[in-house]
Amino acid sequence: MRSRRVLTLSAVGAAVVALTVALGAGQATAGPAVSADPARVDTEREAVARAYIDALVSHDASAVRFAPDATRVEAGLKTGWSGEQMRRDLEHGPQYRVIQGIRDLEMSEDGDVVSTRYLLDSGVAGVKLLTVEITETFEIPDGAIHAIVAHITPRFGA
Q1: For residue 4, what are the CA distances in angstroms to 7, 60, 129, 147, 157?
Q2: Helix, strand or coil, per DSSP, at residue 86
Q3: Ordered mean pLDDT values, 10 residues apiece, the chain (158 residues)
Q4: At what angle do helices 44-58 and 83-92 cross, to 10 degrees?
Q5: Cβ atoms of 156 and 132 closer than 8 Å
Q6: Contacting residues for 142 by C-beta, under 8 A, at least 6 apart
């Protein structure tokens, strides 16, 4: 069942990316990630994780602090091999161009690990096609992201 979900999500992601490239969709215009509690102040590590999440929408990774050997695993598949590659993907990767916005961000910290959960809306030309719930853990032992592990669940009707 898990492999079927991963394949389904991959197929949906590939279709959305292909449609975006075909239509030449521009950069998303949505603002930064919106917390469930906007009055809440981030801890130092949470601010590092938030910079990454904001870059998903803005495609500006200049504020994201990655360790040189940072990694990312999404749905069990390695999608990030270095800080440089992940920064380049955030800024230029077609897989991120379909992101329209992030909402309902929840964050918590336990030692060097920041856990996040949020809804990510994706689509083309201002039309929302899919919402997914993303749960990510960020290992941030020294002010830089060393590892990200993401789990993605489609949310129909969200």
Answers
A1: 5, 33, 20, 25, 21
A2: helix
A3: 43 41 38 64 96 96 98 96 98 93 96 98 88 97 98 85
A4: 40
A5: no
A6: 67
SS3 85: helix
Q: What is the residue type of 3?
A: S
**CB count, 10 Å around CB of 8?**
11
pTM, two decimals, is: 0.77
Residue that the structure tokens 């590092």 belong to: 48
Torsion of CA 26, 27, 29, 34, to 10 degrees: 140
Assigned token pair, 67: 């360790």
Residue 43's SS3 state is coil
The span from the first CA to the last CA of the chain, in angstroms, equals: 23
